[in-house]
Amino acid sequence: MGVEAGPPETIVRGPEPDLIVDGVIGYSLKGAPRGTAGELIRWANAQGPPILALDAPSGVDTTTGTVFDPAIAATATMTLALPNEGLRSPGVEAQVGELYLADISVPPSLYARPTLGLQVGHVFSHSDIVRLP
Asked: How many domains does the chain have?
């Protein structure tokens, strides 16, 4: 693809990308991003192209909706199966951007189990990717 890469502690400088894909921190966030993770988030936010966050914008606690400093300001977030509550919390809209749900083939019967007790239905009956309001 002709993409330069460097050690994780180095941000490679080059032509402006067409898209930034954020996968720096997922659901394992514990407090504000620091070190290389924080630098990458600040770098991404300072760029011009759109940012697509995978699962969750780095710097957002997906359980509580807490937005740490720094946090990705995504154009869109692609989450999997069902969105965590924190992605729908008031005040995280600027980090989440447009919210999409991607099908990873979780059967609706799994959500209906007593431990979850959710009636999800066939969310992906028309498409493998669904935009959430």
From this structure: 1
Sheet holding 20-22, edge to edge: 20-22, 51-54, 76-80, 98-102, 129-132
pTM of the model: 0.84
Structural domain range at position 59: 20-132
Q: What does the pLDDT average to over 28-42?
A: 88
State the CATH number of the domain containing residue 116: 3.40.50.10260
**Phi-psi category of 111—alpha, beta or left, where left has phi over 0 and alpha has psi -120 to 50?**
alpha
Pairing relation of β-strands 20-22 and 129-132? unpaired
Alpha-carbon gap, residue 115 to 34, rounded angstroms? 35
Report which secondary-structure segment, H or E, holds 76: strand 76-80
**How much is the average pLDDT of 66-89?**
93
Query: What confidence score (pLDDT) does residue 111 get?
Result: 75
Cα angle 23, 29, 32; round to 5: 100
Tokens of 12: 């490679």
